[in-house]
Prior knowledge:
Layout: E1 2-6, H1 7-12, H2 14-22, E2 26-31, E3 34-39, H3 47-67, H4 78-82
Parallel strand pairs: 1-2
Antiparallel strand pairs: 2-3
Amino acid sequence: MNVTIGLAEAKARFSEIVDRVQTGETIIIARNSEPVAELRPLRRPTPEETVARIRAIGRRVAKRNARKAHWPPRGRTLREVAHEGHRR
Length: 88
C-alpha cells in the first residue's frame, strides 16, 4: 500500500515512517504536493540468488581471461621478460 506524506510531516515523524516501511509499507514523500522520494523496504537476496550472482561473475571473469594472452609468455619467466634487452 502506497501512502503519500508531505516533507514537513516526514521530517517530524521520521522514526514512525521508518517503522512503517520496515513492516512492508511503501511511503512516498512529496514536496509541494509533488512526489520526490519513495521509501520502501529493502529486498534482501536469498542465499541461492547470491550464489547464482557469484557464479555468473566467475563465468564472466573466466570468459574475459580466456581471451587474454598468457603472461608471462610460456617457457619464459617473468624475470626474463622484465630484463629483456638489458645487457648482461
